[in-house]
Amino acid sequence: MLLRGTKIVRIADGHPYAFRFLSMFSSPSLQSSSDQTMEGTAFHISSLINKPNWEHDKTLKSLASHMSPHLAGKIIGLHSNNVELGVRFFKWVCRQSAYCYDLDGRIQLLNVLVSCNLFGVAQKAVVLLIKECEESEKRIVKLMDAFDEMTEMGFRLSYPCYSTLLVRLAKSNMGFVAFLVYRRMVNEGFVLGGIDYRTVVNALCKEGFVQAAEMFCCRVLRLGFGLDTHVCSSLVLGNCRKDNLREAFRVFEKMSKEEKCRPNSVTFSILIHGLCEAGRLEEAFQLKQEMVEKGCQPSTRTYTVLVKAMCDIGMIDKAMNMLDEMITKACVPNVHTYTILIDRLCREGKTEEANGVFRKMLKDGLCPGVVTFNALINGYCKEGRVISAFELLSVMEKGNCKPNIRTFNELMEGLCRVGKSYKALFLLRRVVDNGLLPDTVAYNILVDGFCKENQLNMAFNIFNSMNSVGLEPDGFTFTALIDGLCKLGRLEQANGILGSMVKKGIFLDEVTFTALIDGHCKVGKAKDVYFLFENMLKNRCLTTAHAFNCFLDVLGKDYKLNEANAMLGKMMKYGLVPSVVTHTIIIDGHCRAGETTLSLKKLEQMKQAGCSPNVYTYTIIINALCNNGRVEEAEAILFSMSSFGVSPNNFTYAVLVKAHVKAGRLDRALQIVSTMVKHGCQPNNHIYSTLLSGFVLLNNATGAGAINSSSDLESRSLSSEENDYNCFSNHVFRLMDVHHALRIRDEIKKCGVPTEDLYNFLVVGLCKEGRITEADQLTQDIVKHGLFPDKAISSIIEHYCKTCKYDNCLEFMKLVLDNKFVPSFASYCWVIHGLRNEGRVQEAQRLVSDFLRHTGIEDKVAVTPYIEFLMKEEEYDPDECLKLIKVIEQVNYKERPII
Questions:
Q1: What's the Cα-to-Cα distance from 219 to each of 194, 212, 520, 878, rounded to whole Å?
Q2: Spatial CB neighbours of 643, under 8 Å, sequence gap ≥ 6
Q3: String of b and e for 236-253 (b: at least 16 CB within 10 Å)?
Q4: For residue 9, which of 96, 380, 745, 780 sits 20 to 30 Å off, Cα-Cα?
C-alpha cells in the first residue's frame, strides 16, 4: 500500500505562507525539475485523451491512479476549447485517481478549474458532482459550502446547477435548505420554471413542512402557474409524513374531482405507504384494488411498499406471493424490492431462500447494490457460514460494487461469532487497505468478540486505541467490557468501567445494569444488587423485568425462595408486570426445593394472572414430577399442553423418556419417541443418550451405573442447545458395543426418525473415548448408504488430525467425497494445517483446490485469496495483534491510500 505523509500537507493547509516557507528549504533546481516533469506528464496525457476510446487505455489508467487534482486541472486546461472533452475527463479521473476519489478530492479539483477560469467545464462539473453526491446531508452541505467559497473567485452557479441542486435537496429530505436555495435563485435574477416550483413543494412536503408548502403553492398560483398532479401528490405525501392521513385523503378526494390533478400511480403509492406505516394493511390492499378499478395500474413502487409492509410484520410468504403477482402483471421488481425480501428472509434464518431470490435477481438482469450484498452477507454470517459470506464479497468486488464499512463490519461480526476474533482484527487491516476508515461499530464488534472469548486484555487494547483513530467509545463498547469482566468475576474493574461511563456522560441503560446485576448475582453479592436496582430507578432505565429475572434466578437456585417472592413483590411495586420468564423462574425455584405441589399451584396462579405458561414452564413442572416418581401425572400434563396452545419440544419429551428408562420401561420410552416424531419433533442427544443407556442396561449387569451416570436432565440443562455434546455419558460409550448401536438404530427407524443425528451422536461419543476404528466403520457404512452425518465425519477427521494419522484421514476424506459428500470447512482446515506442519505443502495446496472445486464456488480465482486468509493457520498471538492495532493507528495519521 502506498501512502503519503501528511505533516507537510497539514502545515500547508493550516498556514497560508506554508508553501512560501517550505520553498526556502527546497532547491530551485529540484522545483524546476518537478515543474518540468508535471508539464511533460500533462502534455503526454493530453495527447492520449485525444485518441478514440481513451477511457480504456491501460497506460492512461496507470498514470491516472496517482494523478493529483492540480495535474488533472492542468490537463483539462490544455483542452479549454473543448468543454465536452474536459467534462468527460473530469468524470473519468474522479473514478480513477485515488486523490480525486472522494468528495474532498473532487472539490479540490473543481477549485483548480475555477482558479484557472475554466468556468464552462466547472459549471458542468458542478452538475455532475451534485448528481453523484450521496443522499447525505453532511456531504451536500460540504459541497454547497465549497460553491460559496468559489464565488470569491468570481464563479457563479448557472441555472442548470441550481435546478439540479434543488432536485438533490428534495431527494435528501432537505426541504428548508431547498427553499433557501430557491430564494437565492430569485435574488440572483433567475427565472424559475414550473419544474423548479414543483421541486421546492416536494422538498418541503418530504420534510413534513405541509403548511409552508401550501403557502408556497399560493405564491406559485399568483405567478400564473396552476396546480397539477405532481404538486398535489407532494401535498398528500407531506400529510402522510405528518401522520395526518385524514388530511391526506381529503387532498386525494379533491384531486379526483379535478381533471388536471387526477391521482396517478405515485399518488396511490404514497397513500398506500401511509396506510402501511400506520399499520392499516387491510385498507392499503383495498386502496390497491380501488386503484386498479380506476384504471391506474400498480407500479413497482406500489408493490414494493406492500412487500415491505408484509415483511415488517413477518408475513414473508405473502410477500413472496406479492412478488409473483408483480411478475404475472408484467410489473418488473427493482433492486429495492428484491433487497427487502432478501433482508427479511435472512432475518428469519432462511438464507438459502434468500440466496434463491438473489440469484433470481441476477437472472432478471438487475445489478445488486451494496445494501443487497450486505443483507445476504449478514444472513450468512449470522449462521456462521463465513465462507459463503466471503464468496459474496468476491462477487461484489468482481462486479465493481465497492464494499462499504458495513460490509466489512458484517464479516468481522461473522468471524467473531465463530470464535475467530483475531481473524476479524486482521480483516480490519484489509478495511484500511481498501481505503475505508473503521467506525465505532467495527471497534465495538472486536471488543465484544474478544470479551466473549475471554481475551479481556486484547479487548482493552482495542478499546484504548479508539481515541487514537478519532473514535469515541459508546455505551455498547463499555457494556461489552462490563459484561466480559462480570463473567470472569472481576467486579471491581467492572464497577470502575461503570464510573468511567458516568464521567463521560454516557447514558447507563438497562443492558449495562443487567450485565452488572448478573455478575454480582453469580458471586452472591446481594447487597450490591439492591444498590444497582436503586441506581436503575434513579436513571429511569428499569423498564422491563429482565434485570429482576437475573436476580430471581440466582435466589431460586440458592433456595432463597422467601427473598425471591419478596423481590417479586418489589418488582410489581415498581409497576413492572412479571413476564412468563419471571413466573417460570419462581416455579423452577420451588421445584428445586422439592415443593412440586406448590409449583403446580403457582402454575395455576400464573394462568389466572393472564400470563400463559410456555414450553419451558411446563418442562420444568414435568421434570419435577418425574424426579418425584409422579410419571403418570407428568405424562398427562405433557399430552394436555397442546390444548393450551403450547407444543412440547424435544427437551420436554426427553424428561419423560429418561423417567421411563430409569423405571425400566424401555418400550414405553420408545413409544414416547414415536409420539414426539408424529408431532413433528425430532429426538435430541439427551434422548439418544438415555435410550443407549437403556439398551446397555438390558445386556449388561453393570448397566445400572450407566443409567446413573447418564446425562442428567435437571432444569438447568433444559435450555441447553441441541448440538451440546456435553450430555454424553462417557461410561455408556465405554460399555456399549456395536450391536447396541445397531439395535438403537433399528428401533429409532421404526419410530420414523432419520438416522443421521443418531450416527452423529454415536460416532462423536466413540471418538471421545478413542474408539476410532468402530466410529470409522459406522460412518463408512452410513456414507455408503447415501446418508451424510456431518458431525460424525468432522469428528473422525479431527481425531485423525490430532493423532497425526493424515494418510488415514486423506483416505477417509476420499471415501466421503466419492460418495458425493463434502466435509466441512473446519475439517479441511485441520487437515491442511497438519499437512503443512509436516512439510507436505503440495498435498495441502491440492486440498485447497479440491475444496474450491467440491463446494461449487463459481469464481475460484476471485475467492481464493479469502479462502487462503480463512484457512491460514494463525494462532492467537497478542503481540501480533498489538502490532496490527498500532499499524491501524498510524494509518489514521496518513492520507488516503492509493487504491
A1: 12, 11, 66, 68
A2: none
A3: bbbbbbbeebeebbebbe
A4: 96
Reported as a pLDDT band with limits 50, 70 and 90, residue 36 is low
Report how far residue 203's alpha carbon sits from residue 27's, in angstroms, rounded to the nearest whole number.
56
C-alpha cell at 755: 438416522
Give Cα 118 distance to the centre of its chain.
46
DSSP annotation of 55 reads G
Q: Is 321 left (phi over 0), alpha (psi -120 to 50) or beta?
A: alpha
Mapped onto helix, strand or coil, the DSSP state of residue 315 is coil
Residue 249 has pLDDT above 50, yes or no: yes
Measured CA to CA, the distance from residue 572 to residue 574 in angstroms comes to 5
Which amino acid is located at 143 in the chain? L
Residue 877, classed as helix, strand or coil, is coil
CA distances from 73 to 36, 163, 658, 891 (A): 16, 26, 81, 28
Q: Write out the E strands in 567-698.
A: none
pLDDT of residue 109: 85
Q: Are 21 and 30 in contact (CB under 8 A)?
A: no
Residues 165, 180 contacting (CB under 8 angstroms): no
User: What residue has cell string 386525494?
Assistant: 252
Taking alpha carbons only, the member of 117, 97, 119 closest to residue 106 is 97
Please check whether residue 554 is in contact with residue 589, taking contact to mean a CB–CB distance below 8 angstroms. Answer: no
Buried b (16+ CB within 10 A) or exposed e, 788-827: bbbbbbbbbbbbbbeeeebebbbebbebbeeeebbbebeb
Q: How far apart are the first and last CA of the chain?
A: 8
Distance CA 256, CA 235 (A): 14
Q: For residue 610, how far is the Cα from the chain centroid?
A: 36
Smallest CA-to-CA distance from 576 within 539, 537, 528, 531 is with: 537
Residue 726 has pLDDT above 80, yes or no: no
The whole-angstrom separation of Cα 229 and Cα 532 is 59
Residue linked to cell 446397555: 696
- Report d(CA 517, CA 537) in Å as an integer: 14
| Mean pLDDT across the chain | 83
DSSP 578: P
| CB distance 181 to 169 below 8 Å | yes
Q: Is 227 exposed, middle or buried (0-12, 13-18, 19+ CB in 10 A)?
A: middle
Cell of 241: 409524513
Residues with Cβ within 8 Å of 517's Cβ and at least 6 positions away in sequence, in order, are 529, 532, 533, 547, 550, 551
Task: Give CA separation, 443 vs 402, 507, 508, 628, in Å.
Answer: 21, 19, 20, 51
Percentage above 90 pLDDT, the chain: 29
Show Cβ contacts of residue 819 under 8 Å, excluding neighbours closer than 6 positions.
Answer: 783, 784, 786
646: left (phi over 0), alpha (psi -120 to 50) or beta: beta
CA distances from 807 to 260, 811, 813 (A): 82, 6, 10
b/e map 838-858, b = 16+ CB within 10 Å: eebeeebeebeeebbeebebe
Q: How far is CA 809 from the centre of its chain?
A: 36
Phi-psi category of 330—alpha, beta or left, where left has phi over 0 and alpha has psi -120 to 50? left
- Per-residue pLDDT tens over the stretch 617-664: 999 999 999 999 899 999 999 999 988 888 999 899 999 999 999 888
| pTM, rounded to two decimals | 0.77
What span, in angstroms and rounded, lies between the C-alpha atoms of 814 and 267?
A: 63
Q: How far is 864 from 852, CA to CA, in rounded Å?
A: 8
**Number of Cβ within a 10 Å radius of residue 189:** 6
Q: Which residues neighbour 704 within 8 Å (Cβ) at sequence distance 6 or greater?
A: 697
Predicted confidence (pLDDT) per residue in 75-107, tens digit: 888 888 888 888 888 888 887 776 666 778 888
